[in-house]
Here is the input.
Amino acid sequence: MTGNGRTPNTGKRTTSFDVAKAAGVSRSLVSAVINGTPGIGVGPETRAKVLKAIKELNYQVDAQARAMKTGLSRCVAAFGDMKNPLFLQLLEGMQKACAERGYHVLISGQSEDDRDRLNMLDLYRQRRIDGIVTLDVTEYESASWIERVREYGVPYVSVEGYAKTEGVASVLADYRDSIRQAMDYLGGTADRYPVYLEAYEERPGRNWAERDRNAAYEAWCAARGWTPVVHRFRVQDEAWLGRYLDEAVADGRGLPPILINWSVGAVPLYRAAWERGIRIGEELVLMAGDNTRRSNAYMTPSLASVEIPYAEMGEEAVRLLLEPPQDEPAAKRRLRASIRPGDSAPNSARG
Here is the structure.
């Protein structure tokens, strides 16, 4: 296989022979690293030496020729809403996993009519991509899209979508475990334990993630013989939050700790508390079950939250796409979240 780079100091065209010589390996191993040739095992150290030689020699692979020879483009499409910061986190993980395998990432933004989603199928037929990863809203379950994917035979993984659809590979966050972690972190006693606030945009409990979070909260309380206390409000409804705080203060028993499902729902709660002179982290202990916008560190005081591992989910999606398990090609992978401490729920405030 030839490249279009030039060997340093000589000006000659760099070839795979030059790369093999610099790396101290055979040309077949260089080809295996570049093309992902099946049946030829390449250890991580050997792969690293080949990739280093490729970089140092400025070796450029003729992608068109390679695609014609191998049927692979060494490129994966990432599809999602470019305005969604979660998509950027996903890309971070996808880029890492692709770079480790000698792949590139093609980014496709989301249009209102799904035209861009369908265009990716044409890219696959043209051998310009080898598979598709999409970041979907949690309730996404389009039968027509999956029908087209199967018709074209496209390797495909959804992140957050198709949680209940068999036969579709998905990477999902373990939202039940995330709430269990948050409740264990907050702690409590029989007369003072966290209430759960579910912020929603259109209607409460509309998707599997919210149902899983709510079920985990109720199970955590039930295991201790405590009555779950759940309130639902439309996100950004600061007036409702103000009334809730007023009623809780008037009760005379002190404000209970609050676990809110999204960090975006905590923003109006911060404002409502500030207007009433309620000090978050002291009089009101607060935590978010999903740091949706990665904004917790910039809030004052900093918001304790559960960090959903979107970068790791991007890595796992690439692994499932390019290295699907033999026994379960359409696997469901659930990744564990982690606690991000903050001043809104200091250790000293936990029961």
Q: What stands out?
A: The chain is about 40% helix and 15% strand.
